[in-house]
Design goal:
homodimer, mainly alpha, two-stranded antiparallel ribbon
Chain lengths: ~325, ~325
């Protein structure tokens, strides 16, 4: 199964989710309105609202709040992308120039703030659980900011350990996947055990998704056409390197970390670190961790009654883990 | 009366407000925790929580929610300052280097996001009116973003009219003053008429406050030691210039606006625009508008029962309007 098939299966409900975002994002300020429309037109994969709508449907018939929470998830995701582009100085996203590169960092920050407000507005309109769900989203936004700040801090000291790494990727990616699944289950008043299982499915899937993304930076699955080595240039130590480092002595570990510090300015050092990762099968070891997380994610679906949505969620886990699109 | 006197009058309640912010802003990430502590140590004037606590007290005895909403107002204010510093490229604030200049734009954006979340967390804990007040704050955050975006858009076209100007300063300053006063009145379950009057007091005071700030940029009240001409360098057309422009022909108006467009790169053009404002008494005319707004703000207090808080609110309006500190 592909993401496109899941989107086709969700059909009208996914369209209603996007339409709700469009309504919320209207503004009488031309610069803002035009930018919002352009961002919606190039909306990306919509993976998070797809996860959200499938999770709701796996627990019961989707309702207005299911649509609402799915829209809020995508609004929050895009708000943080607008801020991340400033943080990372990204000139391109989804093969298009970013708001940052077109209108500057200031506009990207402010338009991100605007999308954040619209996320809150979207949640405030919920029929039920509005406060509970605002609390979930606030926790996730806090995680997103803390994860990025921890990553900034660690990038300057090159002392990221495995525990730091998993905290960072939970905060910056998995927390939102978890909130997407949990809020969706709440929207249809799922039993507590189903809510918790879906939340765990979401968090494991999010971790696997980020590991996959970090592996792509080491050239795994180049079909995506994404440039490699970007993380090293920013001093970021990710799982493939951590797996390779776990194979060597403390001395060599320290020596490689010093190379990472120099890799920020020196492509030769970056190349040496990449060769080290290859020599110690960092990618294969990271892939094992990713696959274990995907199996774990799928196992959390067992408790749910059989449904098309449940099958799609299981397939999506495998698709996301293996994504090279 | 001075702001310091109002702070002394509020005493323990103002201390509890700051203590609540401190508790909310703790983090186990050293970079984040250290920056938050430093920002709190140099907390600035605390004008907005002072307004909030006085407004609550003018309607009834302050309670836990009064403290909570006052803290949330200051959290939101600081969050937007962290983002504004990136938007404006500001290296200094309150005579200290900004987070932006010390840690870079990315950290300033992310730490701003963190303060925003803490503002929402703070409101979620309220005993009553939590959802109503979150809605107020979300509206204000939306205003803040829209105001800044409108200002960015207008700065590039140099066609700011008086209506645009008042919309911009309502959004970027007065909306938060209004929300501070309105949420404070809600915290003590004030009668509807008192809530509305205080909200209007807040919005008029906020407009006057921003006009005063914009006048300082034309060198009015240099005691503050603030550099002048910054707005013109950014293409921002504010009330002193609009007042001067209203005195001249359509041709001269257009010619001056063209000079503003060139003033971004050319100090001689900026000086010519400043001379034009002096020649047409732009500052004196802007001062009349500001004073009328302060009188209007004070008139909205009449409906409230007499109290020390009410007297402080009236004095504060005159103090804020005339501030050269």
């Amino acid at each position: 199964m592909t993401l496109e098939e899941a989107k086709a299966f969700l059909g009208a409900d996914l369209e209603r989710t996007v339409a709700r975002m469009e309504t919320l994002l209207r503004s009488d300020i031309p610069l803002l309105d035009g930018t919002n429309r352009s961002l919606l037109t190039h909306a990306g994969k919509l993976l998070r609202p797809v996860l959200s709508l499938l999770s709701a449907g796996a627990c019961g018939p989707r309702n207005e709040d299911s649509i609402r929470f799915a829209a809020a998830v995508e609004l929050l995701h895009n708000a943080t992308l607008l801020h991340d582009d400033v943080v990372d100085g990204s000139a391109e996203r989804r093969n298009l120039p970013t708001v940052m590169s077109l209108l500057g960092g200031p506009a990207s920050v402010l338009i991100g703030d605007f999308w954040l407000v619209k996320c809150i507005d979207c949640l405030l309109g919920a029929d039920r659980y509005s406060e509970t769900v605002i609390r979930l989203f606030a926790k996730t936004l806090s995680d997103l900011a803390e994860g990025e700040i921890l990553q900034l801090q660690k990038a300057s000291s090159c002392d990221t350990g495995e525990e730091d790494y998993f905290r960072i990727i939970y905060c910056k990616t998995a927390s939102l996947f978890e909130t997407a699944c949990r809020s969706a289950a709440l929207s249809v008043s799922a039993p507590e055990a189903h809510i918790e299982s879906l939340a765990r499915y979401g968090s494991r899937l999010g971790l696997a998704f980020q590991i996959r993304d970090d592996m792509l930076d080491y050239g795994d699955g180049c079909a995506i056409g994404k440039p490699t080595g970007q993380d090293l240039r920013e001093g970021k130590i990710t799982l493939p390197l951590l797996c390779a480092l776990s194979e060597v002595s403390a001395e060599e570990n320290l020596a490689i970390r010093k190379r990472v510090a120099r890799a920020v300015d020196d492509p030769a050092e970056a190349a040496a670190v990449q060769a080290f990762v290859r020599a110690h099968e960092g990618l294969a070891r990271a892939a094992e961790r990713r696959d274990a997380l995907i199996r774990e994610a799928v196992s959390f679906l067992e408790i749910l009654p059989d449904s098309e949505e449940k099958s799609y969620l299981a397939s999506l886990a495998h698709f996301v883990g293996a994504r090279n699109n």
